[in-house]
Design goal:
Length: 445
C-alpha cells in the first residue's frame, strides 16, 4: 500500500519522537540464538495501569523463550506525532497502544498491519461485533484489537438526589433526556431568583466539545457523520439535522434558558468541575467513566456520590452512546507480525482485559471480562458501567478520513461559539456541514 505523509504533525513533538525512535528496535530485533525482541509502545499512565501492563509483560517474558517484549512508555498527549515520526523513519514499535480515533489516518497511510490473518479465533469471538466495527475500515481490514472502552455517565451528589425525591434511574430504566432536564430544574437552587443560582442542577464541561457532542447524538437518534452515494462510490458526509442537533440544543437550553447549567462550565475539562461538585455548586456532572477515580480519591470526608447511566432519547433504539475504544495494533513494517499479534491476543484475553480495565478505571470490551466480579461491584459505580456496556456503539467519528482536520479547524470553534450563545443553530449547521464536507471531500478524492 502506498504510504502518504499525514497532516497535523507538530514540531513540538519532534524531540519526544526522537526518544521513541531510539527506544524502538525498528520492527523487532533478533539475537544470535534466534530470540526475537519486540517493542510494545504503551500509553498506560496511571500508577496501577502501568504496573498491570509491566506485570503482564514480565509474565509473557517468563513463559516465552523465543519472543521477548520490551516495554516502551509513551504519552497520550504526543502519541500521534511520535508514532508518525517513527513510521516515517522506519523505526516504528512492533505493538502499538492507541485509541481507535487515531487509527484512521495510519491505516489508510499503510502504517498498520491488517490483523485478520494473525489473530486467533478466540480473540475474535471474545469481543462483541460492535467493538470490532470501531477498528474495521478500508475495505474490511482490521487494524487493531479494541480492549478498553469508556462511556459517559452522570456522577451525582447522592444526598441532593435523594432529598429531591426524583426517580433514581437504573441501567434498565434510565432517564430520558426530558426527565434529565426536569430533574436538573428541580435540583437547581436560586434563592434570590436573580438568574444566578447558588446551586446548578448540572454542569456541562465542554472544553473539548466535538467528540462528546457527536457521541451523545446517538442517544437522540442522530449521527452527525453519515454515508452518501456519489458517482465515485460511497463517501462520508457531515449531517446536522434535527436529531443530530438535539443534544446541542439541550445543552444550550440548559445554559441560556433554564439556567440549570453554568456558562462557566463550557470552558472546563472534567477535572475542573470536581471542586464545584464537591462544594455542592453542581448536583450532577456528566463525565467520562474514569473520573470516578478522581472523585473517589479527592471527595471530602462524608461526601456521598453515585454513578447514574446516561439518559436516553424518547424513541426505541436511542438507549445508546458512542465510544472510542483503546486499541492494540501491529506496525505494518514489523518483521514479526505473527509474534506481535500473538502478544496482542495475549494482552486482550478476557482475564487480562479485566485486569487492565481495573487499573485504568475503564470497562473491558470482552463479554466475559465484563462479568468479572470486580468490574461488577457496586462500590464506586462499577456495576453501573458493566450494565450499560451493552448500550455502547462505535463513535460515528471512527473511520472518517479528514475527521481530525474537521474537528480542529471547523467543529471545535463552531460548537464553542454556539454553546456560548455567539451564533445560532443555523449558523452552526452551515459551518459544520458546508465547511466540513469540503474537508471530507478532499480526503476522499
Amino acid at each position: 500500500m502506498r504510504r502518504v505523509t499525514l497532516p497535523g504533525r507538530r514540531a513540538a513533538a519532534t524531540l519526544l519522537a526522537c526518544v521513541l525512535l531510539a527506544a524502538c528496535g525498528g520492527g523487532g530485533e533478533g539475537d544470535e540464538d534466534g530470540t526475537v525482541t519486540l517493542d510494545y509502545y504503551s500509553l498506560a499512565w496511571q500508577k496501577e495501569s502501568v504496573a498491570a501492563n509491566k506485570k503482564l509483560v514480565a509474565q509473557w517474558n517468563r513463559t516465552h523463550k523465543k519472543v521477548k517484549i520490551r516495554y516502551v512508555q509513551g504519552t497520550w498527549e504526543t502519541v500521534h506525532d511520535q508514532l508518525l515520526t517513527s513510521f516515517e523513519g522506519g523505526e516504528a514499535p512492533d505493538i502499538i497502544h492507541d485509541d481507535a480515533s487515531d487509527l484512521t489516518d495510519f491505516a489508510y497511510g499503510g502504517y498498520l498491519a491488517d490483523l485478520r490473518p494473525y489473530l486467533p479465533e478466540a480473540t475474535r469471538t471474545a469481543i462483541p461485533r460492535q467493538s470490532w466495527d470501531s477498528v474495521t475500515m478500508n475495505g474490511g481490514r482490521l487494524y487493531g484489537v479494541p480492549f478498553l472502552q469508556e462511556p459517559r455517565v452522570i456522577i451525582a451528589n447522592r444526598k441532593l438526589l435523594e432529598r429531591s425525591g426524583v426517580r433514581v434511574p437504573t441501567a434498565e430504566q434510565p432517564w430520558t433526556w426530558g426527565e434529565f432536564e426536569r430533574v436538573a430544574k428541580k435540583l437547581t437552587r436560586d434563592k434570590d431568583r436573580n438568574g444566578k443560582p447558588e446551586r446548578y442542577g448540572t454542569v456541562w464541561t465542554m472544553k473539548e466539545p466535538v467528540k462528546q457532542t457527536v457521541n451523545l447524538a446517538l442517544s437522540t437518534g442522530g449521527k452527525v457523520f453519515t454515508k452518501k452515494r456519489t458517482d465515485d462510490g460511497i463517501k462520508n458526509a457531515v449531517r446536522f439535522e434535527a436529531r443530530d442537533a438535539a443534544m446541542s440544543r439541550l445543552i444550550r437550553r440548559q445554559v441560556d434558558e433554564d439556567r440549570t447549567a453554568p456558562r462557566s462550565g463550557l470552558g472546563m475539562g472534567g477535572s475542573d468541575a470536581l471542586p464545584g461538585f464537591f462544594a455542592g455548586r453542581y448536583a450532577m456532572a456528566p463525565l467520562n467513566f474514569s473520573y470516578r477515580q478522581q472523585v473517589q480519591q479527592q471527595a471530602p470526608d462524608g461526601f456521598e456520590w453515585t454513578v447514574l447511566p446516561l439518559p436516553r432519547g424518547e424513541r426505541p433504539g436511542e438507549n445508546v452512546q458512542g465510544v472510542v475504544p483503546q486499541t492494540l495494533s501491529v506496525a505494518e513494517e514489523s518483521r514479526h507480525k505473527q509474534a506481535a499479534a500473538d502478544f496482542v491476543a495475549y494482552m486482550t484475553t478476557p482475564g487480562r482485559q479485566a485486569e487492565l480495565a481495573k487499573g485504568d478505571w475503564l470497562l473491558p470490551t470482552a463479554t466475559e471480562a465484563l462479568r468479572d466480579p470486580a468490574i461488577n461491584r457496586r462500590k464506586d459505580g462499577w456495576r453501573t458501567g458493566a450494565q450499560i456496556a451493552r448500550t455502547l456503539r462505535p463513535s460515528p467519528t471512527l473511520g472518517v478520513r479528514g475527521y481530525a482536520e474537521w474537528s480542529d479547524k471547523v467543529a471545535t470553534p463552531a460548537f464553542q461559539r454556539y454553546y456560548h450563545g455567539d451564533t445560532d443553530l443555523e449558523t452552526l449547521r452551515d459551518s459544520l456541514v458546508d465547511d466540513g464536507n469540503l474537508i471530507l471531500d478532499r480526503y476522499q478524492r
